[in-house]
């Protein structure tokens, strides 16, 4: 039931992280604050397809 998702920075649009999520518990897209090495600060990362 867990699927792989890619997280992209909302400011520079680069895909920085991959993680897994449970689609039964989280059917909508994830949003997490993570460190972006290109922006050099913590930004919101959203799930991409």
UniProtKB/TrEMBL annotation:
Superkingdom in the source lineage: Bacteria
GO molecular function, one term: structural constituent of ribosome
Keywords, alphabetical: Ribonucleoprotein, Ribosomal protein
Gene Ontology cellular component annotations, sorted alphabetically: cytoplasm; ribonucleoprotein complex; ribosome
Pfam family, one: Ribosomal_L33
Record-linked InterPro entries: Ribosomal_bL33 (IPR001705), Ribosomal_bL33_CS (IPR018264), Ribosomal_bL33_sf (IPR038584), Ribosomal_zn-bd (IPR011332)
Repeat among keywords: no
GO BP terms: translation
Family matches, as PROSITE patterns: RIBOSOMAL_L33 (PS00582)
Database matches in PANTHER family: 50S RIBOSOMAL PROTEIN L33, CHLOROPLASTIC, LARGE RIBOSOMAL SUBUNIT PROTEIN BL33C
Entry's family note: Belongs to the bacterial ribosomal protein bL33 family.
HAMAP family hit by this protein: Ribosomal_bL33
Protein name listed in UniProt: Large ribosomal subunit protein bL33
Organism annotation: Collinsella tanakaei YIT 12063
Gene name per UniProt: rpmG
């Amino acid at each position: 039931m867990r699927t792989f998702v890619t997280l992209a920075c909302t400011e520079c649009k680069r895909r920085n992280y991959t993680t897994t999520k449970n689609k039964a518990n989280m059917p909508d897209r994830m949003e997490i604050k993570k460190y972006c090495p290109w922006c050099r600060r913590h930004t919101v990362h959203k799930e991409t397809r």
